[in-house]
Amino acid sequence: MKKFLLAIIALGSMATANAQEHSWLVYGNVGFASDKLDNKDNVITWNANPGVGYQFNTHWTVGLNLGWGQSSTKVNGDNNRTAVNSYEIGPFVRYTRELGTNGIFYYFGQLNASYMGGYTTYGSDPSFAKHTGFGINAFPAIGMHVSKCWGINFSIGGIEYTTDKYDGAANANNNFGFTFGQQMNIGAQWNFNCHGGHHMHHGKHHKDSDEDKAPKKSKKASDDDDE
């Protein structure tokens, strides 16, 4: 079996222990995989999960997650693809702490709750196998500052619970998952406020320059004031 995999990439603002309070966090991850099976069937899988959150302080972030994904299969000799689509939307809460005192490493725990659903399509036929449900998951992650603006984080799974019901089904499908050590996600994060310190320093420089440019009293004027 031949397989091509594009690693998961996450882009967003730095959600670290030194994140600026009362600021907005924008992040996301995307993934893509293409499999060529031994029977020459082709399977393409992709997903995108953007999110936005508000950082109340240097530890707590609350926001909204979105998700969309698809796994499509093209059977050898068939011109149409069967695509299984999924979507989700819901709130999240994240708690972040610095790891150690050097300011390089950090860790966070995140809790997601989502309304989710999906459907299947085949070529141009109407969608079928529709289903909706609810899910909740929690996971820890550890990260490292690569530079003032960039950081990377790693997670190796978590715990999750989902309940999902297909249209016309009598009962819902309930699943509990424990994925520690069974998956790994790697993300890169960008801090949009990383130049804040530079601007503050630049402002101080202008202040000092204005004082330097102010007219100075001559020695005689100073002696007159003393009198």
Compact description:
This protein has 227 residues and is mainly beta.
- Strand element count: 11
Give the ordered list of helices and strands: EEEEEEEEEEEHH
- Mean pLDDT comes to 77
Radius of gyration: 26 Å
Structural class: mainly beta
Fraction of residues in β-strands:
over 45%
Could you say what the CATH architecture is? Beta Barrel
Instruction: Specify the number of helices.
Output: 2
CATH names the topology as Porin
Q: End-to-end span in angstroms?
A: 96 Å
Shape: globular
Helix content class: 10-25%
Largest sheet: 11 strands, antiparallel
* Overall domain count: 1
Unreliable sequence segments: 1-18, 196-214
Report the top-level CATH class.
Mainly Beta
Describe the structure.
The chain is mainly beta. It has one domain (2-213): Porin (Beta Barrel), CATH 2.40.160. 11% of the residues lie in helices and 58% in strands. Strands 1, 2, 3, 4, 5, 6, 7, 8, 9, 10 and 11 form an eleven-stranded antiparallel sheet that branches. Strand 4 and strand 5 form a beta hairpin. The protein starts with a strand and ends with a helix. 13% of the residues are buried. The model is unreliable at 1-18 and 196-214 (pLDDT under 50).
List the helices and strands and how they pair.
Layout: E1 2-10, E2 23-36, E3 42-55, E4 60-74, E5 82-99, E6 105-122, E7 128-145, E8 150-155, E9 159-166, E10 173-178, E11 185-190, H1 196-213, H2 219-226
Antiparallel strand pairs: 1-2, 2-3, 3-4, 4-5, 5-6, 6-7, 7-8, 7-9, 8-11, 9-10
